[in-house]
Amino acid sequence: MTPGSEVVLALDDVAVEYESRGSAMRVLPGVSLELRRGEVVGLVGESGSGKSTLALAILRLLPANGRIVGGEILLDGSIDLARLGEEALRETRGPKVAMVFQDPLTSLNPTFKIGGQMVDVQAAHTPRRARRADRKVFLERAISLLGKVGLPDPGQIVRSYPHQLSGGMRQRVMIAMALSLEPELLIADEPTSALDVTLEAQILALLRSIQASRNLTILFVTHDLNVVAQICDRVVVMYAGEIVEQGRVLDVFEHPRHPYTEALLEAVPTRRNRGRALATIPGQVPSLLGELRGCRFADRCSYAKQCCRTEMPPVVASGESQAVRCHMRGPGALWESQDAKAQQ
Amino acid sequence: MGAGLSNPSPLGPVAKASRRARARSGVALILRTPGGLIGTVIVVGLIVLAIFGPDLAPYTFSQIDVNSPLQGPTLHHLLGTDQLGRDLLSRLIYGTRIELEVAVPAVATALGVGLLLGLLGGYLGGLVDNVVVLFTDTCQSFPAIVLALALLTVLGPSLPNLIIVIAVTFSPNYARTSRALVLSVKQNQYIVAERALGAGRLRIMVRHVLPNIVAPLFILLAMDTPSAITTEAGLSFLGLGVPPPEPSWGTILSDGFNSIFQAPWAVLFASMALGIATVGFLLFGEALRDMLDPRLRGVTGWRA
Amino acid sequence: MIGYFVRRLVAAVLVIVIVMAFLAVMDRLIPGNPVTYIFGPRANPALVAQVRRQMGLDVSVPVQIYQYIFGALHGNLGVDFVTDQPVSSLVMENLPYTVVLAFSGLALAVVVGVPLGVLASTRPGGFIDRVIGIISVSVITMPSFVLGLLLILVFAVHLHLLPVIGAGAPGDPVDDLKHLVLPASALAISWIGYLARLVRSNMLEVLTANYVRTAHAFGVHRSKVFYKYALKNAAAPVVAVLGVGLGSLLGGAIFIEVIFDRPGLGTLAYNAISSRNFPIIQGTALVIAVMVICANLLADFSYQLLDSRIRLGQSAAS
User: Fold this and answer.
1) Which of A270, B18, B29, B244 lies 20 to 30 Å from C81 when distance is taken between CA atoms?
2) Does B93 fall in a domain?
3) Contact assignment for A64 to B1 by CB distance below 8 Å
4) Bridge-partner residues for A7, per DSSP?
5) Bigger pLDDT: B43 or C22?
6) What pLDDT shows up at residue A175?
7) Which residues of chain A are at the B interface, by a Cβ-Cβ cutoff of 8 Å?
8) Are C48 and C42 in contact (CB under 8 A)?
């Protein structure tokens, strides 16, 4: 299904800080992003880029020392998740926006059976105390959902504990749990990072089919560009807390506009660069303590000029669908590179 | 996140040099926290008191004044007197020396014996290990007091016997802990590598295993000293400790207990002495532990 | 799993046997001539010989051990030196009092300590948490007999509120309870501090766990997450601690009985000490050791039961 034009989630200048021993680290200085209905958007970045922080911030699931210090998170155009009250937020988590986490082993309670956990999740969103009859209904729904996510013998699974299942099965359970409340937005925080390639392919296929049948909007956080290629419509590239580029997957992969995206793509081993040393990006992600001036990628950028270090680059539209934050692009840019460093 | 916190990770040979540098800053760190500061002050204070106190005390511990028994604090007797008119302050000060005289050698011996047993059992494994484990299990089946009681009944109370008995009751804990530490260090790659390079077992034990397990044991030492002190006080209270008129804090408590309805001072001040000593060592031990493994320092809650 | 239980059981039995052997030959540790040590150098030779036989010193070590174990398994723990009463009946007479005291202390510690720990974990760093923290730290370190003395000082000497002598008039359970309050509290107080701290830190660790985050992520009510999900996981280590606790409680009970002048194994042993009445000490130590071993076994088993799923889960991850 092609994505609609209705905006499901709009992040406007969202800023997040982590507090550590008295000093505050501004992990996200101000991120803006839009998700349209039915889109699968990949949020890509290396460790420390802030992608998980962004994902967690949407539902305000940050750890105790993390705080949203600015911006708006608008759901369906009207509900600001960043400022929502406790109870209203609780009601949103699950029925409107659901989340799937990276490590299903530690994300499921080890001392409760799967069935109980799934029933509890549904019961949490019924207005009156779930009576025994209701719990039966919930259990049946759970069993049917577990079947839909491709698990054999769901009746047995609801009676099992998380550690009795394999990694792939556990992740399917989490997905089933997320679907049980019929959300309109699914946030997946590296759901396949803990799985091997075969399982990953299966889970991605599952997500694709779920997305198609329910017109689900998905925000897919990952560090793996291959995954993005397989499942996402649009991709958002993050570096050191900033979105440096975003656009349709095909466009970005074929014509990356930001030096970082370029470097990332270059570093992916493909048939074409087989036999050669793998390209790496020299340097390290800058420390986020204190103020950062200029483009955060400047120190590692092979195109960097003086202005890159002193002025924050603006976001400019580029190509058909892309937006990029770089001094090198856009009108009046220092150079217009169509395919200056195109993939060879 | 929220994952289990285990022992401090053992250091390879290269990291040892920087460890010394870290130790120096660590000492400063202990003094920075309020707990660490208080603990260090108390511990140092007790040691100073034990060494120099008796010479500075206003009276000797056996100076009897028949005319003023069971008095409360006065100018002459800052903490009052006991039932024989002996100055409580002086007796408590002298008692500090007795407590440390018993507790420190006892715990040190326990550490030595336990460390040896744990090292042998953990590293050599097999039959030796089984014997060590059996020994520790047996000793730990008795509450420390009961074992001490039984041993002191047959051996008779005296200072050296007390040290021996307390050491015996405490060593299983050290044996267990060091054995567990050895087992976890043993699996490290560089140990295996040393074996592959032909290093003898003794050499490995002493040069590689030992330095890495000593740190947690020292923390245990600091934390166990107050236990040894209270054990000694308890035994003295029951009459099995240092024989009178030597004023172990337990003896002072026992005397005070006999006259508790007439004058509460002995019980009160001796209890305070015990309390301060135990709190001091506990705080010191905790600060020591925090210095060695910052991960254990407090847990930040996770907010939804 | 069954294999583990069996192994632990066998190990426990082995330890009991060793304990018995150790106690059997302990009187050989007495320096010099044990009998003259007890009775003095001018003791009647016939008496000396009789006592030597009683103490098992006229036979070799293995035989002595064998005799003792054999006797113990048949309920015969020897006779005491002073009154010639069978030790086993003396011990059995006094055992219930000690058990009641120890369990009351344990129960009190759990009933007060666990909720305090939970309370402290609701708002970490807050005022209540810090107050509970300070109180916990200060009482953990105090040995129970000192606390007992202080309690006597406050409640009996000054306030005249609660009785301090004896175990109460027989047959009057209310009076028994009144007499139990101070001694049980003395035992319990330091454990309350310890449990409160343990529960608090367990709860805080669990509350940062990923599965708690998942529960919140799906909109489960805060209170439900706290009480149902977090508490259950935090409780497991507490059970293990309780097993160990019984050992130290029994040790503390000895003092408490002496201080509060209550009947029980502690008073029995205390009186035996002054008369060097070794068989009583022997029998008391044995019974206490067996209780401690059983309690540890029980605690170990229940912890395994509660926790085996978590353990299995963690190993399945690798």
Assistant:
1) B244
2) yes
3) no
4) A36
5) B43
6) 92
7) 60-65, 106
8) no
Query: How is residue C251 written in tokens?
Result: 């040790």
Closest to A94 (Cα-Cα) out of A185, A10, A203: A185
Smallest CA–CA distance, residue C140 to chain B, in Å, is 9
Contact status of B294 with chain C (Cβ, < 8 Å): no
Count how many domains chain A has. Answer: 1
- Give backbone dihedrals phi and psi of B261, rounded to 5 degrees, phi first: -75, -20
Structure-token match 């997320």, residue found: A178
Q: Does residue A123 fall inside a structural domain?
A: yes
Q: Give the B-side interface with A, CB within 8 Å.
A: 1-3, 300-304
Mean pLDDT of chain A: 83
Q: What pLDDT is attached to residue B16?
A: 52
Contacts of residue A65 in chain B, CB cutoff 8 Å? 300
Minimal Cα–Cα distance from C91 to chain A, Å?
Answer: 43
Note whether B142 contacts C212, CB cutoff 8 Å: no
CB contact under 8 A, C153 and B143: no
A177 and C208 in contact by Cβ < 8 A? no
CB contact under 8 A, C285 and B146: yes
Q: Which residue of B has its CA nearest to C277?
A: B153
Q: Which chains touch C (3 or more CB pairs under 8 A)?
A: A, B
DSSP A146-176: HHHTT-S-HHHHTTS-GGGS-HHHHHHHHHH
The answer to the question of residue B1 being in a domain is no
Which residues of chain B are within 8 Å of residue C26 when distances are taken between CB atoms? 150-151, 154
Instruction: For residue B9, tell me if it sits in a domain.
Output: no
**b vs e for C127-163, b when ≥16 Cβ sit within 10 Å of the residue's Cβ?**
eebeebbeebbebbbbbbbbbbbbbbbebbeeeeebb
Contact C143 B279 (CB under 8 A): no
pLDDT, position C317? 37
Q: B252 to chain A, minimum CA–CA distance in Å?
A: 46
Q: What is the predicted ipTM? A: 0.82
| Cα of B157 to nearest chain A Cα, Å | 52
How many domains are there within chain B? 1
Best mutation site among A65, A92, A99, A105 for testing chain B: the one with the most B CBs within 10 Å? A65
Domain hosting A111: range is 105-182
Tell me if B226 sits within 8 A of C141, measured CB to CB. Answer: yes
Chain A residues with CB inside 8 Å of C227's CB? none
How far, in Å, CA of B230 to CA of B271, rounded? Answer: 10
Give the integer Cα–Cα distance in Å for B123 and C209.
Answer: 35
3-state per-residue secondary structure call for B180-231: HHHHHHHCCHHHHHHHHCCCCHHHHHHHHHHHHHHHHHHHHHHHHHHHHHHH
Tokens standing for residue A228: 């993005």
Residue B168 sits in a domain whose CATH number is 1.10.3720.10
* DSSP characters over C285-296: HHHHHHHHHHHH
Structure tokens given for A278: 């793998």
Is the pLDDT confidence value at C312 over 60? no
d(CA C47, CA C38): 12
Which residues on A lie below 8 Å from B301 (Cβ)?
A: 64
Q: Which of the 8 DSSP states describes residue B263?
A: -
Which chains are adjacent to chain B, needing at least 3 Cβ pairs under 8 Å? A, C
Confirm whether A325 is domain-assigned.
Answer: no
Lowest-confidence pick of B106-115, B193-202, C26-35: C26-35
CB contact under 8 A, A63 and B2: no
In whole angstroms, what is the distance from residue A172 CA to residue A150 CA? 8
pLDDT band at A344 (very low <50, low <70, confident <90, very high): very low
The answer to whether the CB atoms of A163 and C210 lie below 8 A apart is no
CB A189 within 8 A of CB A101: yes
Q: Using CA atoms, how far apart are residues A155 and B19, in angstroms rounded to an integer?
A: 55
Domain carrying residue B296: 41-300
